[in-house]
Structures are given as C-alpha cells and as structure tokens.
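Worked example 3 (structure in, sequence out).
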C-alpha cells in the first residue's frame, strides 16, 4: 500500500473508533449518572475522545511520511498474527523479565478485560454484570501493576538510568492515574454518601488516561500491536537503500534519497512506527555489552532520541548529529538488544541506518577509515602487509576443466584465514581435516575477497554490494553450490545477505561439517581427551542463525570432554567485543567486553574455551591467557583428538 492508501485506511479506522467510543460514552452516561453529572461527564468524555483521535491522527501522519522503497523485509499474515498473540495477548516477552514483567502483565490483562467490557454496553454487558469478586480482582490487578511500575520508575530507573526529572515525571503520570482508577473502584463500593462523586472522579481518571495515550508513553498501547503486525518476519535483516545489481551507480547518485536517513522522513514507515513503540523500559541497555564501556553508548538512548525526533511537534531533527552524539560506532551488532526487547523492536536496525547516515556524510573514525581502505584496495579487512597470505593447496584446482567433475565444496577461507596468523592456523587445520576425510574441495585462493560484512556494518553499503556482486560472480565459476566457511560473519553474509543479490549457496559452517564427518567415521579413530571445555557462541552463528548445537554435539562425541556452560550462553551469549566493526576502532575497542567474557569462562570452571569464529578467538585469546586458560577454534580441538 502506498502513502495515500495507508493514510486513507488509517483515517477511516479513526472515524470508526470515534463513532464507536462516542456510542459507548453516551450509553455509560445514561446508566451511570443523572442530571448535571451526566452532562458534565458527557462533555468531558467527548473532549477526551477528540484529544485521542487528533493525537493518533497526527502520529499516523508521521508514521506514513516514511519510505517504502526497496523494502525487501517481508511480513507474512500467519507470522504477524502469531506475533500479535505471543507478544501482545500472551505478554510472553514481557513476562520473561520476572517481577516487573509479571506486574505489567497483571495490569495489561486486567485493563484489557475492563476496557473491552467498557466498550460493550450496547450489547447489554457492563461492569455491573461482572461478578463482584472478579471485578475487584481486575481492579486490584491494574492498581497493583501500575503502582509497582510507577514505584520502580521513581526508585530504580530514575537514579540508575540517570533519567531527567521531567522525563520521569512525564512517565509516572499515566500509571498513577491508572492506579487511581483501580483504587477508585474500592471507594465507590464503600462510600454511600459520596459514591456518585467518587464514581465521577474514577471515570474522569479513566477518560484522562484514554486521552493521554497519544501524548505519553501509553502510546505503546497502540503502536506495539501495530508493530507486531508489520515487523519483518526474519530477525537481523537489513534494508536495501539501493540495489547495485539493478541500478548503476550513476542512477543511484541521481536519486533524491540519500544512502542513510538524514531527516525523519527518510526512515522507512516501519522504522518510524517502531520508534513510537519503544517503551523506554531500558532492557536493551541493561544487557548491551557496549553499554558501560565508558563511551556513554546506549541503545535505549538512541531509541529515545529517535522517538523525540518523531514527535509531531519536533523540529526537523538532524539525524547526523544524533548518530554522532550517540556514538553509534560503539555497537558490536551482537543483536542481544533485539532478543531482550519485550516488544520485539529492532534498535540494531536503527543503529545500522544511522551508521549509513554518517557513512553518507563521509564521517568515519580513523580506525574505520583505514579498515575500509584495506577492504577497498586489498579486498581484506586484515592488514596484509603484516601477515602475507598463505594459500592452501586444495585437491581440486579452482578453475577445473569444463567437463571435469566439480569439487564437492568450496572452502571460503575468509580475511582472517588469509591474513591473520591465528586465522591461517585454523584454515590450515581445516584443510588438513578435509584432506583426511577424503573430500574433493577447492578454494579461490588469491581471487577471494572480503565478503563485505564489515563494510556493511560500518555503513558503507556501496562497497558491500560491489564485493557481494563480485564474489557471487566468482563463486559461480566453480560450478559448486556448497560453500564451507570457518567464520561466523562469512556464514551470516553468505546465508542471509547474498541471496538478495542472487547468491544462493548452500552454506555450511565448519563445525557442522566436522560433526558430520565425525558421525560418519570419516576422520577415523578419536583419542580420549579429558578436558573441561566451554563453548563461546559467536553472535553471528548463534543469535543470528540459531546454530547453537553443532559445536556442543561435536564436543559431546569426543570421549573425556566435560562440557560446561557459561552463565550467559546460547541466545544470551555475551559478545566478545569484535563484531560490527568494533574490532577496528582505535584504542582498545572491545577489551573490557572480552575481559568480562573471559571472567565467565573462568567462573564456569573451564580449562579450555572453544569458539567457531576467528574474531572471537582474536578477542578472547589474551584475557583468557591472563587467567591461565586456553582458547582454540573447534577445528583445532577436533584435530588434536584426531591426531593423537
Ligand atoms: S547490537 Fe549488541 S552492542 Fe549493539 S546495541 Fe544491541 S546489545 Fe548493544
Ligand atoms: S528498544 Fe525495546 S528494550 Fe530498548 S528501551 Fe525500547 S522497548 Fe525497551
């Protein structure tokens, strides 16, 4: 649907809502109040309905002012309805957060039932028809839930998250009014003389809450259900501001839209809605590994800035300034914030867009600038002058005879495998295991270039797409569709990002292949290795692609291994600090994050940490060594079992 159709649909729905609510209000006036009370309540009610409709109408105008061009992220009806049920009706993600989540759910479920009944007087159902104990339980639910959330905000969030007084006060008003509605119920029931006045006040509070929805944090009552319906089905997908496989660079530069959004209207419609769905609960900030590393970075703060820029009365915000002041380069793109968000928002997606904004302005910090130069000039993120490439000797040459049998698989060695000493060691180990298993494999050797993952994460979409198109064309030469990778970032790029440019390959991570080879007995007899081992889930393998089990299953097949789990593992795995191009920032970019992870390894009681990504290995080697432990890639551990 285009902008005009969406606005037409939205306005029609608002008219229907206004009519429905007005009928309900009229009927309530009839059975609740008499004389002047009735007139006063009706007038106040009409004003609140008008305030609600105008407020939502203005928001609707903002949300539909965004872009839909090149939106390759898909949403299916079945998934959308399932999300609506799980996230909104069942409050599944909210409840995950133990006590605060349960209080929110109590308030939500009680409020939803009361509100539904409130809308039904025309069919003869009113609050008076609900049995008194149940009615009291519902009002108790909204009272306790809202008081708890207001108290938590004042006593915990305000001091700990350093919220401003005005911000805190603004957020406390709505829960206090909701609590007043709930508590009012018990006064109405007890009071005999003043019951009409108390009832009037209770309903005034309820209607005020309703009017406040578009102007307060309560807006999420509207935006979250809408967001769950339009959110992309697949997590961690990136928008496509242009497509080099369809447009030339000249056509792209002639477009009026920039690479990254500089003004609110240059975000997608979905993104504009998402900013208003953020409840500022701070859960993304609590679990963000980059938060608290001294840069003042916080995904919740970024969402807040974008939410403020989204307000109907906000002046045209300078998104370049927001991107720079909020230091979007600090993000490791680990994706933990998106897993933690109780309403399934995508702070990471906003960060990617803002990185494109700074990239479009040509503003990179010096570490990122030199990394991009290396990728662009040498096709490798690693400094190849420090570690010259060592090329593997595959059993099948890269360009075999046209009528010869193609290789079983292509091993994509990756920048680390070509130019980083630790990565070279891993690549050589994997090559040895492939040869031992008798696999007919090949590799592109000097033809191989960086996949472009790091360039894309830095915001340089153009460089990423050029590399993607070039690598896809190269791989087609090999007439082999099965691709082996030993880097979590390469895995994600091939599996999830190249298909948008026609690169459909069967991608296998080396842990999956080694597991298969072990299970099929193709690596021969394994030695017993008595070791206490824990596995660090790389973000781009685990959270991004759900590959949690292959390495664990692999370890479980080796006799003597005692596999231990860290406090934060699988979906909750803590980032090593390297991803999202953070490794290439100047200074000690991820050292504190890596040190924290190393502490968790030691707390788990492991002697050896295994991982499945050269970035993680690079980050964790030193801090683990300082604690007396060791780190190996999973292939090295398997090789040690095979060789002995
Ligand atoms: S992706 Fe990771 S580092 Fe980036 S904001 Fe989210 S939690 Fe923080
Ligand atoms: S993005 Fe999600 S987790 Fe973060 S503050 Fe907003 S609602 Fe909370």
């Amino acid at each position: 649907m285009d902008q005009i159709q969406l606005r037409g649909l939205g306005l029609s729905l608002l008219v229907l809502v206004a009519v429905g609510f007005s009928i309900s209000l009229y009927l309530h006036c009839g059975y609740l109040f008499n004389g002047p009370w009735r007139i006063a309540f009706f007038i106040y009610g009409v004003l609140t309905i008008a305030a609600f409709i105008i407020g939502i109408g203005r928001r609707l105008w903002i949300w539909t002012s965004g872009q839909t061009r090149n939106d390759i992220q898909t949403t299916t009806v079945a998934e959308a309805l399932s999300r609506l049920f799980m996230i909104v009706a069942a409050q599944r993600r909210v409840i995950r957060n133990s006590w605060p989540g349960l209080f929110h759910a109590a308030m939500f479920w009680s409020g939803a039932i009361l509100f539904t009944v409130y809308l039904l007087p025309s069919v003869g159902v009113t609050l008076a028809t609900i049995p008194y104990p149940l009615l009291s339980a519902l009002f108790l639910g909204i009272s306790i839930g809202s008081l708890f959330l207001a108290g938590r905000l004042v006593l915990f969030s305000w001091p700990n998250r350093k919220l401003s007084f005005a911000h805190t006060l603004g957020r406390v008003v709505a829960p206090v009014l909701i609590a007043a509605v709930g508590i009012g119920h018990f006064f109405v029931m007890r009071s005999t003389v003043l019951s009409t006045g108390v009832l009037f006040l209770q309903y005034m509070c309820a209607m005020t809450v309703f009017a406040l929805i578009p102007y307060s944090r309560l807006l999420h009552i509207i935006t979250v259900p809408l967001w769950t319906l339009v959110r992309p089905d697949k997590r961690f997908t990136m928008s496509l501001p242009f497509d080099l496989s369809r447009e030339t660079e000249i056509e792209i530069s002639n477009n009026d839209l920039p690479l990254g959004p500089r003004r609110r209207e240059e975000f997608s419609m979905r993104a504009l809605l998402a900013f208003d769905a953020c409840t500022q609960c701070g859960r993304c900030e609590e679990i963000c590994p980059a938060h608290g590393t001294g840069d003042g970075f916080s995904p919740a703060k970024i969402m807040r800035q974008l939410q403020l820029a989204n307000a109907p009365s906000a002046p045209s915000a300078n998104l370049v300034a927001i991107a720079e002041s909020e230091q979007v380069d600090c993000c490791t793109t680990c994706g933990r914030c998106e897993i933690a968000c109780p309403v399934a928002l995508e702070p990471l997606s906003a960060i990617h867009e803002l990185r494109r904004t700074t990239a479009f302005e040509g503003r990179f910090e010096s570490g990122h600038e030199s990394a991009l130069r290396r990728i662009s000039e040498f096709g490798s993120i690693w400094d190849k002058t420090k570690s010259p490439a060592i090329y593997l000797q595959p059993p099948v040459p890269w360009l075999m005879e046209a009528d010869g049998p193609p290789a079983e698989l292509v091993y994509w060695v990756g920048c680390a495998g070509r130019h980083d000493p630790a990565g070279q060691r891993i690549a050589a180990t994997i090559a040895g295991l492939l040869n031992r298993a008798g696999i007919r494999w090949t590799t592109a050797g000097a033809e191989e270039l960086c996949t472009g993952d790091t360039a894309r994460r830095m915001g340089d979409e153009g460089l990423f797409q050029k590399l993607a198109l070039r690598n896809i064309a190269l791989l087609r030469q090999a007439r082999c569709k099965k691709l082996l990778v030993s880097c979590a970032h390469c895995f994600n790029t091939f599996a999830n990002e190249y298909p948008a440019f026609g690169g459909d390959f069967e991608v296998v991570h080396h842990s999956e292949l080694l597991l298969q080879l072990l299970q099929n007995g193709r690596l021969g007899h394994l030695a017993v290795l008595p070791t206490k081992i824990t596995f660090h889930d790389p973000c781009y393998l685990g959270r991004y692609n759900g590959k949690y089990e292959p390495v664990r299953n692999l370890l479980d097949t080796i006799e003597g291994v005692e596999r231990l789990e860290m406090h934060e593992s699988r979906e909750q795995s803590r980032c090593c600090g390297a991803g999202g191009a953070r490794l290439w920032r100047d200074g000690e970019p991820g050292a504190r994050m890596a040190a924290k992870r190393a502490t968790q390894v030691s707390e788990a009681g492991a002697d050896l940490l295994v991982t499945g990504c050269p970035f993680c290995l690079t980050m964790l080697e030193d801090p683990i060594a300082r604690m007396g432990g060791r780190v190996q890639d999973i292939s090295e551990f398997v090789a040690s079992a095979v060789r002995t």
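Notes: Strands lie at 409-412, 441-442, 482-485, 506-509, 531-535, 561-564, 608-611, 630-633. The chain has a mean pLDDT of 90.
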